[in-house]
Design brief:
Layout lengths: L14 H11 L23 E5 L2 H12 L2 E5 L7 E6 L4 E8 L3 E5 L4 E6 L5 E4 L2 E4 L4 E5 L5 E5 L2 E8 L1 H10 L7 E4 L2 E4 L2 H17 L6 H21 L3 E4 L3 H14 L2
Antiparallel strand pairs: 1-3, 2-5, 3-4, 4-11, 5-10, 6-9, 6-11, 7-8, 7-10, 9-13, 12-14
Length: about 260
């Protein structure tokens, strides 16, 4: 959702144009990780944990263990062809996934997540805001923001981020500004130079998480990547300032849950 333009409907063109871009880009026809890197230069390493299934209920139950309860619907016929590879870290975890059928997912995430790659023409809905994505977009999804995502077959790549560590990086970049920073879900447009910088940090962290690598070095690389992401969030309106404290917000949420249906 939005590169700073709240309420703008449908970034992109018509559904026909969107399908044409999918065909040209090849995102909708990829069938495996081998030889088809979801983000140039950053394929999933051979040694990471993997899961494969054609059973939609099994996929939902497995993903729910890390991403929370959600609904997941597959459209069309044939094998689901779901596959995911995980690289877990202390402050940053990564997931590469692919699916062979169009799917619709609805839920909210317990952590903040940056969707670096989605199948071209995926459609996200956050409340009244609705956006089509392109291969050059990234979607930042704040924790506890309910959303719906409909996407064609294809590959995706996401970063699960430690919220406290990310907010520390954001705060360091906005010192002196009034109020407390609050993360919001946003569509991010990443320039070629920005993409190179981001991919370099991601690739370095993948290498730094290899078996036998230094734990201290991996933590430093996680911090470097969080800093890069914080720069994008601050510069593209994914951070708003509020004078209401987090404790006060929690009190208000508790009152709403206790008194309103």
């Amino acid at each position: 959702p939005g590169a700073g333009a709240a309420g703008r409907a449908f970034v992109g063109s018509t559904a026909t144009d969107c399908r044409r871009r999918c065909t040209v880009s090849g995102y909708c026809s990829r069938r495996d990780f081998q030889g088809h890197e979801p983000f140039a230069g950053v394929p999933p390493p051979a040694w990471v944990e993997r899961f494969r299934s054609d059973d939609l209920d099994e996929v939902r139950e497995t993903v729910a263990r890390t991403d929370g309860e959600h609904s997941r619907v597959a459209h069309g016929t044939g094998p689901l062809g779901y596959e995911v590879a995980w690289l877990k870290g202390e402050l940053v975890s990564m997931a590469w996934a692919r699916v062979a059928l169009p799917t619709t997912l609805r839920g909210e995430l317990p952590n903040v997540v940056l969707h670096l790659v989605t199948p071209a023409c995926s459609r996200y809905r956050f409340g009244r805001r609705e956006y089509d994505t392109s291969p050059t977009d990234a979607l930042f999804v704040a924790d506890r923001w309910e959303f719906t995502r409909r996407c064609p077959p294809g590959m995706s790549f996401a970063l699960d981020l430690d919220k406290r560590a990310l907010l520390e990086e954001v705060t360091a970049r906005s010192a002196g500004r009034p109020g407390s920073p609050m993360l919001t879900s946003q569509r991010l447009v990443i320039s070629d130079a920005g993409r190179v910088r981001l991919l370099t940090a991601v690739s370095s962290l993948v290498d730094g998480r290899a078996p036998g690598a230094s734990i201290q070095a991996a933590r430093r690389l996680e911090g470097d990547l969080l800093g890069v992401i914080a720069d994008f969030l601050v510069n593209q309106s994914a951070v708003v300032r509020t004078r209401v404290t987090n404790a006060r917000i929690a009190d208000l949420e508790g009152w709403i849950e206790a008194n309103l249906e």
